[in-house]
Structure formats: structure tokens, C-alpha cells
Amino acid sequence: MTKSEAQTRSEIIDQQLALSGWNVNDPTQVAKEFDILIELAGPRALFNGHQFSDYVLLGKDGRPLAVVEAKKSSRDAAIGREQAKQYSYNIQKQVGGELPFCFYTNGLEIYFWDLENAPPRKVVGFPSRDDLERFAYIRRNRKPLTQEFINTSIAGRDYQIRAIRSVLEGIEQKKRNFLLVMATGTGKTRTCIAMVDALMRASYAEKTLFLVDRIALREEVKAIYQLFALLSSQEIDQFKSWYQANNDIESACANDTATQLVRYADIPAAYNDLSDRLRAKILGENESKYWITQVLDEWKEEGKSPDDFLRTLARQTLKNPLAEANFLKMPFLEACRTKGVFDAADPM
């Protein structure tokens, strides 16, 4: 049975708004049949009168955040696009302030339009009031991306900087989809993190969804995010230099702990403990990722459980702590086991 527009609104759209936290019966949140007064001068005065927007979603300050134009479910939602656009501009003209966001829907499909900033796009539901207010804040406060600084302490290679800059310029050109193809070991994770960092500083993003296909990558990304959140840029640069120094030590004097202490003699006492040197090691492009993958691969291919792996590693660490950075590898993998990383990845 075909639903009328009134039925589509009451039986479908009202419920969709409610799922996002909007109380359609509360006039301080949702204004139904919002009256828009049209006042034109000259010959166009013939078109003066009233328009009625199906829904206007209101902010906590009572000002319009978004217009929702509804059509019955048997019609194409796009039929309401121009109406929704006109309502948004006319509401801004009537009440002042910022241009409301624009939605048009037939109950089965919902389209979101940030007028003057991006083309319409299909969405799976309505944003909450907090989400819309955050969108408005971002739109109001964002800075030009083409001039935004890229933190080279996170991703400083020429090709990484070019990739990030290309994406930032594309976003300013109102593009939404990007694909970066990078070989193993070229710093994909760091490139993404530096890009997110630039977007956040430019107020283009407040939250980021980071999808990975393996738990090991999740732990790597999480560790790097947490690390950079805690450290200043000067500390990051210092840790990177210590990390490189440690690699030199491992290759030049694998069993000479005295030499290691000499090489680390300039490290302030506050950073001279194992946990902070572990942070420095995690800054390596692929180190922590490789360690976790090594455990999982031996588990899957040779049946060697993480407990067995760590027992063997503990013996190797006691015998030769500097070989393959065992003095860092051992506590890192122990921490992974404690957090349940390997439990979640059980290949059986």
C-alpha cells in the first residue's frame, strides 16, 4: 500500500528522527510546518506569501540548524531537493544567522546537503542535535587546508608530504573520496596520522574512524596516537634520534651493555627507564607491527602459542638483551598479551 506524505512523515520520518535523539513532539527541538514569510519587492512581489517547511531542526539556542523536506515514499526523494534549498536560504534571510543544513527524504532514502560547501550525499540516518551543532562549529571555524602546516615529525618524507598535501587540496575542492596506494614499509600509518592531525588543527575534523584489517595494525595505530598525544614535538624528535642510536648500538655492539650506557649518557634521567625507551622504539615505522605479526604468524603456521613464544623470548632476552632489541620487544609483547591482543586473534 502506497503511503501518503503525511503517513510517510508520521510512520517513518518521525521514527528516524527519534532514533537520532530528536523529540518531534517537542517544539524546542523540532518545528513542524515551520512558517517562512516571503517578502519580495517590485514585480516579484506577486510571489509574496508563506512557505511551510516540513521540519526544522533547532539547536540548543533555539535557532534553526537544519531543514528537512519530506516526500511520500512512492516518490523520488530528489524531488524535494530544490524546495529544501529554497527553504534553507529563506529561513536564513528571515531569522538571520548561519545557513541551515539541508535534508530531503522520502523515508526510504535520506540526503544531506551542506549548501555552499559540498554536493548532496546519501546518508543512512539523521544526525543528532549534538552532531549537527558540531558540524556547524566545524563549518564556522575551519581554516584553509592549502595553508595548513604538516607535522613532519609524524610523516616527513617527501612523498608522504606530497600525498597529504594532495588530499588536503582535494578536500578544499569539495572532493570526498581519496585513495592512497603505498608499498609496505613506506609509512602508510604515519601518513594517515599526519593527515588527520592537519585536519584536526584546521578544524575540519573532530573525530576520526580508523579502520584496519588486522589487530596488529590496530595496536600499532593506537600506540602511535597515544604516544604523539603525550609528547611535545621536541620530545618526539629526541625519541626518534634515540631510536636510531639504538639501532646503531644493536649492529655495532650487540653484547656490550657498557657501550650502550655510554651512548645513552645524554638522556635525561626522567627518560632513562625502560618504558620511555619502549615508546621510542614504537616510533619505528614497522617495529611494533613486525613484533606482533611475528607472534601471530608462528602461532598460525607452526602452532607455537603466544605463551610459548614469550617463554622462548624471555630466555633469549636474559641471554642477549640487545639482540633484535629484546630488552624492548619482551615488555612490549608482554603488554600485548596482558591487554588480550593475542586472545582476540586466536587462529583456532
Automatic annotation (TrEMBL):
Residues 155-249 form the Helicase/UvrB N-terminal domain. GO terms for cellular component: cytosol. Keywords: Endonuclease, Hydrolase, Nuclease. It comes from the Bacteria. Gene3D superfamilies: 3.90.1570.30, P-loop containing nucleotide triphosphate hydrolases (3.40.50.300). SUPFAM superfamilies: P-loop containing nucleoside triphosphate hydrolases. InterPro entries: Helicase/UvrB_N (IPR006935), Helicase_Restrict-Modif_Enz (IPR050742), P-loop_NTPase (IPR027417), Restrct_endonuc_type1_HsdR_N (IPR007409). GO terms for biological process: DNA restriction-modification system. One of its GO terms (molecular function) is ATP binding. Signal peptide: none annotated. Residues 54-120 form the Restriction endonuclease type I HsdR N-terminal domain. This is Type I site-specific restriction endonuclease.
